[in-house]
Amino acid sequence: MPTGKGKAPDVFRYHYAIVSRIPNSFKDSSLKQKEPAKPIDLEKARQQHEEYVETLRKLGIDVLELPLDERHPDCVFVEDTAVVINGTALICRPGASSRLGEVAVIRQTLRKELGLKIVEVDNDKATIDGGDVLWTGKEIVVGLSGRTNQEGAQAIAKAFPEYATCMVRVEGALHLKSLMSMAGPELIAVSRSPAAQKVLKRVQEQVTYSYMILTVEEEEAANMLYANGMRVHLPDTTIPKSFPIIENKLDFQNRYAQDISELQKADGDLTSMSILIQKVKHPKNFSSGVSDEDLGDFPVVTL
Amino acid sequence: MADDSEKIPDSPGKEPADLDTTQQSVDQEEEKPKDQTPPPAEPSPKKEKAKKEKVKKEKEKSPKKAPTTRSSKMVACRVLLLDGTDQEIEVEKRAKGQVLFDKVCEAANLIEKDYFGISYRDATDTRYWLALDKKISKQMRSGPWVFAFEVKFYPPDPSQLTEDLTRYHLCLQVRNDILSGKLPCSFVTHALLGSYTVQSELGDYDPDEQGVKYIQDFRFAPNQTNELLEKIADLHKTHKGQTPAEAEMHFLENSKKLAMYGVDLHQARDSELVDITLGVCASGLLVYREKLRINRFAWPKILKLSYKRSNFYVKIRPGEFEQFENTIGFKCANHRLAKRLWKTCVEHHTFFRLKEPEPPNARMPLTFPGFGSRFRYSGRTQHQTRQAAALIDRPEPRFERAASKRLTTRSMDESEPYNTSENPDQSAIGYGHPDRANARTPSLAEDEAGQGGRLRPGEELGAPGYHPPGGQAYTDHVELKTTGVNLSQDGVAYYKRGDSIPPTTPKAMGEDLDDEDAKIKYGYDSRYGPGYENQDTLEMRRKGGHPDGYHYPGQQPDRQNRDLIQELKRRQEGGQGEGDDDDDRYDPSTEHLEKKRILITTTTTTSPAHGTSATNSSSSGSSRSSSENSIQLDVASNNLVEGVDDLHAQQDSITTESYVTAEMYTETTTTTAAGEGAGKMAFFHGAGGPGGESQEDHHGYKKTTTTVVMTTGDDSSMPPTVPTERVKYDPNAEHTTTSTTDVPLVKTQSRTVTYSSSGDGGRDLLPGELVSSQSHASRSQTVETTTYKTESDGVVETTIQRKITITSEGEELDHDKMLAEAIANVTSEYLPQDRTVQKIEIKTDTEEVGAD
C-alpha cells in the first residue's frame, strides 16, 4: 500500500515578507483609536521598524520593503491590505476608507514580485482588514470588527475554500488579532482582559479544531508573530506582567523581543507590520496544518 | 419524573434499542447472504464487461435513451458509474436495492463497498439514496430506472482503505465533486490535485511534450484556464516516479483535508427564513451561511435528531454551564427533504460513530412486537467494514485508469445532469440556485408559506386551540401550539441570525467521547422505550382492580374495520402506490400514492371508589396531505394508571403529515415535569367539539369522554385544506364512509368509526390535566398512551387513552391483521381490570397524492 503521507508541511514556514516604510504623515495623520499621551516620535518609530525588519530577517525571511507612501499614513500596517494563504492572495478592502488606496502597490508586489494567485473581493459592500483574519494553520477565523464585515468574511471564505472559515464578533479592540494571535502551531496567545476572553469564548465555540491557549496579561502582549518556529513578542518594558509568562512558557532560543512602542501609538502590533508569504515552488501538499489526528476517526462506540 | 427520564437516554447501556424493526431485520437476514455470495443469476464480470462495452456503443447512438423493460420480470437499470460510463444491469422487478448494488460492485470488482451507494434522482433532480433493504420498485415510482453509483460515506482517512481499487473509485468521486463545484478549491489546489490526476493516469511527465496539449482534454476544475493547465503540467514534472496508486494516494491525502470533503449539503432555512446550508459529514453536522460556517455540531454534541414535517431539529447536549438542552430547528423546503436530511444524518452517524448498527432486536414497545420499522442504517459501519477489509485475501486487483478523458467529453455533454446540474442542495455552498429552490410545486410552496410562520415559537405560545363551530376542530395547530409551549419550556431555540449559538466545544471531536456521546436519538426518545412502558404497564396492572363495567369492544370495530381495510386495499391495489414510509417520495405532480393510517385509541378512565368525575380525551386528525385509518378505542376503567410521556408528541404524530411517526418527539423531552401547564395547553379542550362527546353513568361513576377530531390545516388559524368527516359509531349505528372533496393536489378520504359504550351522542367536555403520556412509534405504527386526570367536585378521575395509528403509504400491510391485533392488544393488555371501554373510534383516511 503506497502511502502519501509525508512529513506534514509547516504552514508557518514563511519565505517572504512584505513591509512598508513609515511615511512622515504617519506621525500626525495615522488612524488612532485614541490619541497617545505622548505624540509619536517618528524617528524612533522608524528605528523600531528597521529593527523589526531585521528581526524578520533573523527568522530566515526575505523581506521586501516597499517605499513609503505619504498619501497613506497607515501604509506601514500592510497586514490589513492582503491575506495570503496557500499561495493565494486575497486583496483586502480595508474598512477605513482612507486606506483603500494602499492595496494597489501590495497587489502589484504580490503578483509581480512573488507570483501569487491574486483574488479580488467581488462585493462592494465587503470590508476586510487583514488584521481581522486569524489563520490558525488549519482554518480561518474572521473577526467582525469595526473594520471587517460579514460580506468581507464571505469573501475570505470564498477565496480560501480549502479551509473552514468561521466568524466571531469582536468588540473592544481594533482587530481580532489585537486580542489574539498564533504563538505556535495549535497555540493561540490571548490576554486575560475581559474583552479578549469574551472573544476567545466565541472563537472556541466556532472553530473546528482544538488549540492550546497561552494566556498573557496585557492585551497587547497577545499579539505575537510566529514564523519558522520562532516567536517575536514585545519586550518587558512594554509588557512587564506578561513577559515573565512568555519567558517561562516559550522556548528561550526561539524568541525575540521586539519593541514597537512608537508604532503601538497608532494601534500597531507585531503582526500588523508585515504580510508573511509561504512560497513553495513545487508543493506536494496544499498548505494545511490539519493532521490525521484532527481528521481522525471517532473512537467508535457500541450502544 | 421527567427529570429522571431525561437521564435515561444519557446513561450508558440503558438506552433501549428501540430502533430497527422486526420487519427490517428479517430483510437483513434475507439480504445478508447476498452480501457475501453474489446471487447465482449474476453475470460474470467478463460478460458484464462485454455488455458494458455494448452499452457504451449503444449510448453513442442515443445517449439519452432510457433502459426499457425487457421482460415482465426483469428490468434493465442504467447505472452511471464514477468513471462516467454507463452500465446496464438487469434485475428482477421485485429485487431489492441490495441486488443492484451488489451487481454494480461485482462488476467494479469492489470489495470495500460499504462506502458506496446507489443514488437516484427525482423530477427536481434531488438526489436520494436507494435503500438497499427495500425493493427498488417501491423506491422508483416514476421515470426510468436510472441510477448512479457514488461514494456515500467518504472515509476521513483514505489511506486506511485496504485496496487501491477502492481508493481509485474514491478519487473518481472526489474529481466529480470538484468538477461539480461541490468540493470547491482555489486555483493553487486545483493545480496540485490536477497534477496528481495526470500522474495517475498518464504516468511520468514526458519531456518531449510541448506545452499543455497533452492534458488539454482533461477536466480538472469547473472553470479551468490555460494558466491552470500550465501549472498542472509544471507540477506534473515533479511527480516523476510515482505509481498511479501513489499519485492517487497523494491526491486523496490532500483532498481529505479540504473543508468540504465528504460534506453532504442540504439547503434549509433558519427561524428567520434566512437561507442556510446544512452539511452532514463524518464528524457531525455543519451549518453554513453561504460560504461561512456559522455553526458546527460534532456528533458527540448532538443528543437527538428529528424531523417533523419540513422541519428538522437538532437537540444539543447542554454545555458545561447550561442547564437545558437546546433544540435548534431548521426548515427544509418540504417534508421529503427534511426526511432526506434526517436519514442522511442517521446514516452518517451510524456509519462513522458506531461500532455496529443499532441491533435489530428488543426494541418494539412491549405491546406491539413485530410491527413496522423505523428507519435506521442497517449496513455495515466503517468499523465493521474495516474489520472485514482486514480479512480481504486477494492480490490487488488490476484495473485500468482512464477516467478523466472520458469525463471530459461526458461531463461536458451527455452526462451533464450528473456532473453539473446538481440540485441546489448538492451544489456548492453559495452557489445556491434560488430559482430551483423556488420551483416547487404549488402545493409545496403553499405548504412552505403556511409553515413559515410557525417557526416562530412565540406566536404559538399560549394561543388556544381553535375550534370552529360545526363539529370540526383543526388541530394541526394544537400540535403546533404545543410545540410552541415546549419550545419555551424546553429551551428550544430556533436557529436565528445573530443568536448566540450554543457552544460546541472545539475539542468535541476529540474529547467527550465516552460511550454515551454516541447515542443520538433519531427522533425517538428512549425514555419511551420498552423498559419504561413495561413499568408503567405493570404498575397499571397492579393498581387495577377487577374488571368492572367492562365492555368488550373488539368485535364491533373489528368488523367495521375489516370493511374499511378491504376497501382500502382495493383502492390501494387500484393505485400504483408503492414504497413505504421511509422511501416515500412525495412528488404530487408525478406520483400517485396512497397512504393509510389506522388509528386506534383507547381511553381508560379511572376514578376513585366514590364519586363522579369526568375526563376528556382523545384527539386525532388527518393532515392535509396524509391519510389515516384510525380506530379509537376509548376505554374507561377504575384504574390509576401511570404513563410517561407527553401528549404533544402524540398529537404530533397523528396530526402531521409525517409518514414516519417516529419523528415527532422533538422538543418535548424535558416538559413532562416542566409542566402541567404545557400539558394543559396541549390538551385539546374541544368544548364545541363534534358528536364525539359522551356522558356515562357507570356503576356509580360518572365518566365523560370527549373525542375531538382534529383536522390539520396548513396554517395555525386556517381551516384544513381537506375536510375530514367524522362519523360517530355507536353500538346501534352503522358506520359510514365519507369521501372528501378533491383538493388541488391531494385527495384524501377519511372515515371515522366510533364506538361508544354510552351510545350517547351528547358528551361533556371537561378540562383534563395531563398526567402523562407515552408514545411508541415504528415505521408503520404509533402507539400512544395518554393519561389525564380530571377533577370534578373533588373527585379525581383518571382517563387513559390509548391510540394506535397504523400508517402505510402504498405499502402492502395487512391492515386487517394489524387492526385486529391492535384492538386485541388494546383490549387485552389494557383492560384486564376494572376498566370500562368508553369509546372506540376507528378512523380511516385514505389519500391519493397526485391522483389528478
TrEMBL record, chain A:
InterPro entries: DDAH-like (IPR033199). Keywords: Hydrolase. This is N(G),N(G)-dimethylarginine dimethylaminohydrolase 1-like isoform X1. It comes from the Eukaryota. GO terms for molecular function: amino acid binding; dimethylargininase activity. It comes from Lingula anatina. Belongs to the DDAH family. Signal peptide: none annotated.
TrEMBL record, chain B:
The keyword ATP-binding does not apply. The keyword Phosphoprotein applies. Its main location: cytoplasm. Coiled coil: none annotated. Signal peptide: none annotated. Keywords: Actin-binding, Cytoplasm, Cytoskeleton, Phosphoprotein. This is Band 4.1-like protein 2 isoform X7. The gene is LOC106168876.
